[in-house]
Model the fold of this input.
Amino acid sequence: MNTMGSMITFQRPDGQSVQGYLAEAAGSSGGPAVVVIQEWWGLNDQIRGVADRLARAGYTALVPDLYRGQSTVEAEEAHHLMTGLDFGAAASQDIRGAVQALKARSAGKVGVTGFCMGGALTVLSLTMVPEADAGVIWYGYPPIEYVDASKITAPVMAHWGEQDSVFAIAGVDALEEKLRAAGVAYTGHRYLAHHAFANENAQGPRRYPFTQYDAAWAQAAWDRTLRFFGQQLG
Done:
């Protein structure tokens, strides 16, 4: 797969260095940017493709390498990598550092978006990264008791699969209730779709049975996402 960007190094708030994949929009100096948070598979070609898609839409995109160079196509190994990740540090250090790096680079507004595990980290990041200007969650949330919705000041959009067996819709109900109670500017969209419905790798004989790509719903969700980022980051 040919990618548009390249790997860069940026600093976390605590001074540690992190690598990430940067896809730059043409003529984007001073323009808006988005931090993209990986699924549990790692920083693979598919998530690089998401960053490239955002770059083609006019956003400089940075994907922090949360697994420090590791990635996998096996669910068991992905689960092992994910359970070894410190979610609090990933949100408050890696992702916050990525937002700060993009702000320093362009001086424009910066959004955060993530998928699956990255969706859960998007929720946490919105509570821990005050510099974030908007967030889009794709079918993922952390344990609800860890979400301090009173700390979320940026507007939020989310995309949920009603047939998602990984992140059950009952948990979405609980999260949305918490967001509403805290007065968060939140818009949620639900699709008659399974987990990872926007991941084009989740199709064919090699897909995992709990995932299913849906091109129509994916396009609808992307249209809404780009419209939302256009309104909030422009």
